[in-house]
Task: inverse folding
């Protein structure tokens, strides 16, 4: 295929130039066996955008983990109302200052501390919901793709039904019936997101299961479960990881959307979607910081995850095929 | 070492029934190609159609045929990687043609496969040690350090460096990869190894190495091979008995040397005339028989003898009657041909003229499509 330029590896001319003596390694280290994962890691490490995104994500994660410490250091609790200094004469938010670095919200609470606390919710929902979605997707995708037949038809129909239901409608209905809560949001986002990874895995498995190494495993007497998890899973993991890394920001946005529509994380828990929703009634009166900083937090977080996800895809698939869409 | 296979290679020459390791009787394997729909009957690829033969212990049974003639399907059906449509597969006295995959599992230790594509048959995401260790892991035969020791033993036996235990398949050359496949198949000390074009994907010098390795292992462990290939000279070199397949059927079965000196079926004759000769003078003197047309579709195979649309000797009887696979022209019971008009010794097909016109031949019906991407 298009791999011919890769075959030669180093610079044959430069190596052939040495005669009689030991071959001088031309800017190359000793050849070592590296796994496909190690190669992908190597590519990821040298991708500048990926490194910047990863550092940003690391900073957000550290801030989220240390939120109580940050609150204690600033001296303002996340739900602490400063009616005297945190609100202006009309009871509105006060702008950024030495006391409130990013200003306050409409209840006189420190916006900076609340944004830091909001990161905890966003990251927790993003990661946990993605894990649920990926686990379900891999399970259903492997079963549907490898077992085929009735199992495949059943799972495919379930996925079709899930995809045909408007996401927000079902999320709002569920939240209304079951009352909004942190775990419900994770559950709803996770369950409703498993369909795409399931379809990706199913498609990959259907093409992989005709490979001779799967036949070889069957000829050795391997049971279906072993073939699915030992032989097939490592080969479908790359697109799953790529999709997972792009699903995290999508889940964060979904969670913010649900909270914005007040069917997500219930107040008073600090949450970016909730803050953006509250601020939307204020920003036209000049309270720009109230809307800007939670939105920026959401933007930077999702952007960093998306850039990292793209880089992960490039790293896992150096030929740049479009198979993951 | 000899615990699995008590019969040494040398003593398998007799013709008693105990010597038969594998007996295939009227094996049929059809693949559905299209769902029938309301107005159309379901269509099938007749990949293997009524094939019978026996393989003796310690011997090599070669199967030759063009791409798409069903030889790989035959091998995989015998290994029960496919469910057979009908017919019997008697392995070591047991009929395995209908048993469930669960009951097949213990028998998998006795029938192993080596595949054509040494890259495709090794999982690219797994290390070689783990791939060769699979047989031990799957059947719980050895684990931990014991498994590693036995895997490295196998690697050494097939001529691989045991220190390359932790490498990935992509880090080996084609020949080395095929050795990995051989090591994996050998782990169980199976009775039968089905070699599905084991050298077709390798270049010629490597082919010889792998064939010699297979021959050494056969002598050492008393293995029986079902050797599938499309290269006649390779098959002649390795086989005791050769079966020629055309469009899902065996057209001729014969001891290897006899097949190459006295072919009975015109298809065999045509195949032999296409084998390149190393001597250009000989090559010039020889009449190469070029068959007209393509292999007909295995979905709607021709009536009668399946070779008749392309046969230089075709006669009306070839269209109407399917020839039996039986000894022809006074051959011994070992040499069978499915042909109404077998070739006499020394007969040249170049002068043969069909006794029916082209229009009388039943050419394949509409809907030509190659099954399985041409790998059966």
Result:
């Amino acid at each position: 295929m298009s791999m011919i330029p890769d075959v030669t590896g180093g610079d044959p001319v430069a190596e052939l130039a040495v005669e009689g003596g030991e071959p001088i390694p031309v800017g190359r280290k000793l050849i070592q066996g590296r796994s496909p994962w190690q190669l992908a890691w190597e590519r990821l490490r040298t991708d500048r955008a990926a490194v910047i995104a990863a550092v940003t994500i690391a900073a957000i994660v550290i801030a989220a983990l240390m939120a109580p410490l940050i609150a204690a250091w600033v001296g303002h609790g996340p739900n602490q109302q400063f009616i005297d200094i945190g609100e202006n004469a009309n009871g509105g938010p006060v702008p950024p200052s030495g006391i409130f670095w990013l200003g306050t919200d409409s209840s006189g609470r420190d916006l900076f501390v609340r944004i830091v606390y909001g990161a905890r919710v966003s990251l927790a929902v993003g990661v946990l919901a993605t894990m649920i979605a990926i686990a379900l997707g891999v399970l259903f995708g492997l079963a549907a793709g490898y077992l085929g037949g009735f199992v495949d038809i059943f799972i495919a129909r379930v996925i079709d039904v899930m995809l045909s239901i408007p996401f927000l409608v079902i999320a709002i209905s569920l939240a209304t019936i079951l009352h909004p809560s942190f775990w419900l949001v994770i559950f709803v986002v996770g369950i409703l997101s498993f369909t795409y990874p399931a379809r990706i895995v199913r498609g990959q498995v259907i093409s992989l299961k005709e490979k001779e190494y799967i036949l070889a495993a069957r000829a050795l007497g391997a049971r279906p479960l072993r073939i699915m998890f030992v032989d097939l899973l490592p080969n479908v993991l790359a697109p799953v990881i790529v999709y997972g890394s792009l699903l995290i920001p999508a889940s964060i946005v979904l969670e913010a959307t649900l909270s914005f529509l007040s069917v997500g994380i219930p107040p008073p828990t600090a949450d970016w979607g909730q803050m953006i929703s509250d601020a939307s009634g204020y920003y036209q009166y000049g309270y720009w910081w109230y809307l800007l900083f939670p939105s920026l937090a959401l933007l930077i977080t999702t952007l960093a995850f998306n850039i990292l996800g793209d880089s992960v895809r490039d790293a896992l698939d150096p030929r740049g095929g479009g198979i993951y869409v | 070492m000899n615990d699995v296979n008590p019969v040494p290679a040398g003593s398998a020459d007799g013709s008693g029934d105990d010597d038969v390791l594998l007996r295939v009787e009227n094996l049929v394997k059809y693949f559905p190609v299209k769902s029938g729909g309301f107005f159309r009957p379901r269509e099938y690829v007749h990949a293997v159609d009524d094939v019978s033969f026996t393989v003796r212990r310690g011997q090599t049974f070669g199967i030759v045929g063009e791409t798409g003639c069903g030889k790989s399907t035959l091998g995989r059906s015998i290994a029960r990687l496919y469910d057979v449509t009908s017919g019997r597969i008697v392995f070591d006295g047991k009929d395995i043609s209908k048993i469930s995959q669960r009951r097949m599992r213990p028998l998998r230790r006795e029938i192993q496969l080596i595949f054509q594509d040494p890259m495709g048959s090794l999982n690219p995401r797994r290390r070689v040690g783990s791939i060769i260790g699979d047989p031990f892991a799957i059947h719980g035969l050895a684990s931990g350090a014991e498994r590693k020791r036995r895997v490295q033993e196998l690697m050494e036996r097939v001529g691989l460096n045991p220190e390359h235990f932790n490498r990935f398949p992509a880090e080996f050359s084609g020949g080395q990869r095929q050795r990995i496949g051989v090591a994996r198949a050998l782990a169980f000390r199976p009775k039968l190894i089905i070699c599905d074009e084991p050298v077709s994907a390798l270049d010629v010098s490597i082919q010889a190495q792998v064939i010699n390795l297979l021959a050494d292992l056969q002598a050492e462990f008393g293995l029986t091979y079902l050797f599938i290939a499309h290269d006649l000279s390779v098959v002649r070199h390795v086989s005791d008995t050769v079966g020629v397949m055309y469009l899902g059927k065996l057209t001729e079965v014969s001891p290897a040397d006899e097949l190459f000196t006295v072919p009975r079926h015109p298809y065999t004759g045509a195949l032999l005339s296409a084998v390149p000769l190393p001597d250009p003078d000989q090559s010039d003197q020889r009449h190469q028989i070029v068959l007209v047309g393509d292999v007909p579709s295995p979905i709607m195979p021709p009536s009668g003898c399946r070779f008749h649309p392309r046969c230089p000797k075709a006669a009306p009887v070839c269209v109407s009657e399917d020839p039996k696979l039986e000894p022809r022209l006074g051959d011994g019971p070992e040499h069978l041909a499915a042909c109404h008009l077998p070739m006499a010794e020394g007969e040249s097909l170049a002068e043969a003229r069909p006794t029916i016109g082209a229009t009388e031949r039943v050419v394949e019906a509409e809907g030509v499509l190659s099954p399985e991407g041409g790998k059966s």
Observations:
- The radius of gyration of chain B is 22 Å.
- The longest helix of chain B spans residues 204-221.
- Residues 9-254 of chain B form a domain with the Rossmann fold fold (CATH 3.40.50.300).
- Confidence is low (pLDDT under 50) at residues 1-16, 364-376 of chain B.
